[in-house]
Amino acid sequence: MNDQLQQVTHIDNIRLAEDGSSVTILDQTQLPNRTEYLTLRTPEEMYEAILLLRVRGAPAIGICAGYCMYVLARQMDERDYDAFARRFHELKEYLNSSRPTAVNLSWALNRMERVVTNHAGEPVEEILKLLEQECKAIHQEDIQMCRAISEYGLTLLKDGDGILTHCNAGPLATSRYGTALGPLFLGKERGMNFKVFADETRPLLQGARLTSYELQKGGIDVTLICDNMASIVMKNGWINACLVGCDRVAANGDAANKIGTSGVAILAKHYGIPFYVLGPTSTIDLSCKTGDDIEIELRDQKEIREKFYAEPMALPEVKCYNPAFDVTDHTLITGIVTEKGICYPPYTQSLAQLFQSEN
Ligand code: MRU
């Protein structure tokens, strides 16, 4: 693998301090113009980093939240188990309220809390050691999951394929390789070439700021397009497959992902282009029967009116509707690529089987 490609796929985006006193993240809001790291120590700094998308992408949020809970647990004065567990729960709920849609946040926080509840009454010092192991395991497992997703995803592609992607589901959003971008980086490592079209992804421009940055730096042919150009590149015959990430997948295969994803899927169906959702099983939430059960985050209206503009592009009193995610109907999804294999319709069966094989 060439150095540049290795640097992108193995980017150091979330790091636990060796003494466990803080979490350092690569501040994604500063990219592509500045590479700045931010050290998080307090609950408020952690909450703000997740809310403002300094750390973003479903798996990355989960990894970061796991480390944050360990850092916060170490800071607690409580040495009585009940008082420790109570405070741990309060802080967990606080971080969990930062963003509602990506299930990886609550998944990782619940995993950390289970360590506490499974060791009720044991000395806090022992529980801290187990919490450290758990948050490091969440990170390590994500590295392995992304690699496996990349391998499975690559089986769906041919050398020279044109790919359309939306938002950012690359190494920055995960641990390594990414989910939707993982097969492209892995294929590149193996000498394959793809022509990727990256939707800019209004309003927060994850496609422009992060996806085109990662692919360009990794030496993959990438063309940045505005979101409303997806149809023309499909019509031109330039797209062989759409690859997108996910924030929460319901039991029936309905998949929440960055706002605009469902429109891409509808276009893909119109043009007869396969549409794949890639994500780890930690993003599948069988407690949501359908996409209607998924809470969609509503964000600040200013992100539409004025963010990234030199001056506001709408009157301050103009109403805006700013949902951060939408749900792609399962009927539009050709396959869901996980670290355990590729699920095909009917998803109610194929997704359930993924979890049955665990027992
Ligand atoms: O609001 P964001 O930038 O956190 O939204 C991210 C996405 O929608 C990604 O596609 C998803 O989290 C998958 S990342 C591997």
UniProtKB/TrEMBL annotation:
Q: Could you say which enzyme class this protein belongs to?
A: isomerase
Which of UniProt's keywords are assigned here?
A: Amino-acid biosynthesis, Isomerase, Methionine biosynthesis
> What is an example of a Pfam family matching this protein?
IF-2B
So what does this thing catalyse? Answer: 5-(methylsulfanyl)-alpha-D-ribose 1-phosphate = 5-(methylsulfanyl)-D-ribulose 1-phosphate
Q: Where is this site: Transition state stabilizer?
A: 167
GO molecular-function annotation terms? Answer: S-methyl-5-thioribose-1-phosphate isomerase activity
Q: Where are the transmembrane segments?
A: none
- What positions constitute the catalytic site? 247 (proton donor)
Purpose of the protein: Catalyzes the interconversion of methylthioribose-1-phosphate (MTR-1-P) into methylthioribulose-1-phosphate (MTRu-1-P).
Q: Report what the protein is called.
A: Methylthioribose-1-phosphate isomerase
**Organism of derivation:** Candidatus Flavonifractor merdigallinarum
Q: Which gene encodes it?
A: mtnA
